[in-house]
Amino acid sequence: MSGTPLRSSHDLHDYYETNYESSASHPPESPPPRKRRQKRRIITIIAVGLVAVLVVIVVYFTVIRKHSSSSASSSSSSSSSSSGSSGKLATGGDGSTVTTANGTQFTYNNSFGGFWVNDPGNPFNNNAQPNSWTPPLNTSWRWGVDRIYGVNLGGLFVLEPFITPSYFDKYSPSAIDEWTLSVAMAADTGNGGIGQLETHYATFITEQDIAEIAGAGLNWIRIPIAFWAIETWPGEPFLAKTSWTYFLRVLEWARKYGLRVYLDLHAVPGSQNGLNHSGRLSPVNFMSGNMGLANAERTLYYIRVLTEFISQPAYRDLIPIFGIVNEALLGVIGKDSLTSFYLEAHTMIRGITGYGEGNGPYISIHDGFTRLDAWANFLQGSDRIIMDTHPYFSFGGIDTSSIAVNDDKGNPGGKWPTQACNAWGPSINASQTAFGVTISGEWAASPNDCGYFLRGVGSESTNPDCPTYDNYQSYNDTMKAGILNYVLASMDATRDWFFWTWKIGPNAAGVIGAPSWSYQLGLREGWIPRDPRTAIGKCAALGLTPNPFDGTYADWATGGATSTIPASSSAAFPWPPTTVSNANVPLSIMPTYTSTGPVTTLPPQTFTAAPSSVTGPVNGWFNAQDTAGGVVTVAGCPYPDEYNGIFTTTPTAPCTGPSA
Ligand SMILES: *[C@@H]1O[C@H](CO)[C@@H](O)[C@H](O)[C@H]1NC(C)=O
Ligand SMILES: *[C@@H]1O[C@H](CO)[C@@H](O)[C@H](O)[C@H]1NC(C)=O
Ligand SMILES: *[C@@H]1O[C@H](CO)[C@@H](O)[C@H](O)[C@H]1NC(C)=O
Ligand SMILES: *[C@@H]1O[C@H](CO)[C@@H](O)[C@H](O)[C@H]1NC(C)=O
Ligand SMILES: *[C@@H]1O[C@H](CO)[C@@H](O)[C@H](O)[C@H]1NC(C)=O
Ligand SMILES: *[C@@H]1O[C@H](CO)[C@@H](O)[C@H](O)[C@H]1NC(C)=O
């Protein structure tokens, strides 16, 4: 479908200048006769002219004409090929010039028929399309038919040592997670203090990144955010509320380029997995330990506040998936307790949004690092819950099988493409039937855990091949072809996916030290396909079972029928749960919060060029009937540290008093 990319007249101009002028300034050894050169020049000029005319005609009919008539709610129907401060609707396809908010310009490259839409009069205009085969935001996603080709914006609003190593280098050795990084930055007032985090939000991902993502044939982005985007409580050193503003800015760009968004709550109070990217390296204190229940209550509150924002009509079609807790560690928490939490979150969310297609987001939960088949028949009858699996071979111990060799049938990638097809295709296929919508929210181009800071600050992979993997400038063609084939097999086997991650920043030495985790770098260097659709059929081509999913989900899995959770499930998974792991006191006297505080409503963006009839209804809170309070502490309740749960005063009675 992509065919020969239709180049813009701008590109042709560059091409012409480069080719013509270089031959003029560096004449070949024996220059062709003057007449032949002149003739060639005339032919070139005519050809360039013809193509330019063609480009203008195609752009006019496919983009400008189609859309100037379609922006019903726009106050203007005028079009131009660059966005700007004119306040008028603008749109552009391949080769168009985009002017960013700060006045800089770049060229939009999209050979897949995608076009951006900038509509200052209606900042919620959903007409943009990232490519010709993805429905525009104003048209429903067809689950089981349309394929998700996504990337994560990892390390943007939840920092990770290997994604932005320069900050962790700078505050080495004290900074090992965002908690300690925030403390170290705050103390370093001479270098911008904690404001350095805001600089990071403002610069790490720009509009041009989002344009590049759409131009790469991708159609979704998964955006990890942390609870401190909403608020922090006393004692928490995280930068409060600031990332929310920058999150809204990314949403604005996603809408402009037609990308759908999977909002991923990646870090919750107390830590849901104890990993550095949960905010704090610590024992799990979400649904585990003495603070397990209180942290879960606070998390439910943040899920509620986010649901109220993203369910507003202005955001509903832009953000069709909400991942409510990233990678909660099932092995520590226990499946029944975790299921109680998910059922309570489902009930709360659907209480806000209503049930069935179009009412609020799909609710995504992670497999908890257990086998997918353990989730078969989970909460049958629930409304649009997605199973999110993160298929990596990276963290399963050392396997030095080379990726820079051909297998015995001559396929690049050694054993790795076959292993991806076999490990992931059938299990995901089975889950699509036995669970419902199943997606791969994270995966990478690396078969191992090599990479600068990939295992966190202070721990390193012991794989002896890491020097080869870490130094991408030395990759030979066999290595690149091997990684590419592994990537294609992974895409085909998982079907609906989000690569982890779009971008890896340089370390203090200026080097990208975890290269196969960067989609952007792989595109440039040749181990990520320019067109993700080329992955379709890869497993079959390797002689393996493809993911044979036929695209049919259970009715309730896609909001098609009235959903009801059978009473047996509700009874089996009560809220609060019957047990919380690793607690020292009975559940009945564990610390809890009360919902009697003020509610935080997330602030909407300001759009000065739009009339209040458009912006007025967007107040951050979808359901006015949802009037419960915000979560606050109970007077007299002896709360231990949120991240370690160690009591200084052991409770003897339930926390049932008034708010503190
Ligand atoms: C589009 O391509 C041009 C020419 O190759 C390049 O200069 C520009 O940066 C590209 N734009 C984006 C958004 O990558
Ligand atoms: C949706 O956007 C497309 C352009 O992508 C446009 O042609 C169509 O008219 C729009 N539909 C609605 C209902 O606005
Ligand atoms: C302006 O924005 C562009 C892209 O959004 C970014 O690359 C550039 O650094 C910014 N320039 C300034 C001066 O802030
Ligand atoms: C830190 O996070 C990285 C991924 O960013 C992971 O590989 C590593 O195991 C984590 N380490 C710890 C101790 O959390
Ligand atoms: C795919 O899933 C369906 C439904 O569970 C099952 O009948 C079929 O055997 C599976 N195919 C493979 C190859 O796993
Ligand atoms: C390519 O690089 C890999 C990894 O360094 C090496 O094992 C292999 O021999 C090289 N292949 C060729 C053809 O140079």
TrEMBL record:
Give TM regions. Answer: 42-63
Q: Which reaction does this enzyme catalyse, per its entry?
A: Successive hydrolysis of beta-D-glucose units from the non-reducing ends of (1->3)-beta-D-glucans, releasing alpha-glucose
Q: Has UniProt tagged this entry with the keyword Transmembrane helix? A: yes
Single GO cellular component term: cell surface
Q: What is its EC number?
A: 3.2.1.58
Protein name in the entry: glucan 1,3-beta-glucosidase
Superkingdom per UniProt: Eukaryota
GO BP terms in the entry: cell wall organization; glucan catabolic process
Where are the stretches annotated Disordered?
69-96
| Gene Ontology terms, MF aspect | glucan exo-1,3-beta-glucosidase activity
**What broad taxonomic lineage does this protein's source fall under?**
Eukaryota, Fungi, Dikarya, Basidiomycota, Agaricomycotina
Q: Where is the composition biased (Low complexity)?
A: 69-87
**PANTHER family membership:** GLUCAN 1,3-BETA-GLUCOSIDASE 2, GLUCAN ENDO-1,6-BETA-GLUCOSIDASE B
What protein family does this chain belong to? Belongs to the glycosyl hydrolase 5 (cellulase A) family.
InterPro entries from the UniProt entry: GH, Glycosyl_hydrolase_5
Q: Which UniProt keywords apply?
A: Cell wall biogenesis/degradation, Glycoprotein, Glycosidase, Hydrolase, Membrane, Transmembrane, Transmembrane helix
